[in-house]
């Protein structure tokens, strides 16, 4: 098992999955407005969909 995180973007997913990565800490990608803003449901859904395909 391998968990990656730090500056991840959706365009990283395919390459990382192909390399065997099976855990993603999306951090700031879940808060497009910055760390002082709430988690974006839309952003999390986009990541979930990308990882489920």
Order of helices and strands: EHEH
Number of strands: 2
Could you describe the largest sheet, including whether it forms a barrel? 2 strands, parallel
Strands side by side in the biggest sheet: 1-2
The total count of helices amounts to 2
The number of domains is 1
What class would the helix/strand composition place it in? alpha+beta
Terminal CA distance = 19 Å
Based on CA atoms alone, the radius of gyration comes out at 11 Å
Beta-strand share of residues: 5-15%
Uncertain segments: none
**Overall geometric form:** globular
How would you summarize what this structure contains?
The chain has helices at residues 13-18, 41-52; strands at 3-5, 23-25.
Task: Explain what this protein looks like in three dimensions.
The chain is an alpha+beta fold. A two-stranded parallel sheet has the order 1-2. The radius of gyration is 11 Å and the shape is globular. The chain has one domain (3-52). 34% of the residues lie in helices and 11% in strands. It has two helices and two strands. The mean pLDDT is 95.
What are its keywords?
two-stranded parallel sheet, alpha+beta, 53 residues
Secondary structure: elements and pairs:
Elements (H helix, E strand, L loop, with lengths): L2 E3 L7 H6 L4 E3 L15 H12 L1
Parallel strand pairs: 1-2
């Amino acid at each position: 098992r391998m968990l990656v995180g730090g500056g991840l973007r959706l365009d990283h997913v395919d390459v990382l999955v192909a390399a065997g990565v099976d855990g993603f800490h999306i951090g700031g990608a879940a808060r497009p407005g910055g760390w002082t803003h709430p988690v974006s449901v839309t952003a999390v859904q986009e990541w979930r969909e990308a990882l489920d395909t």
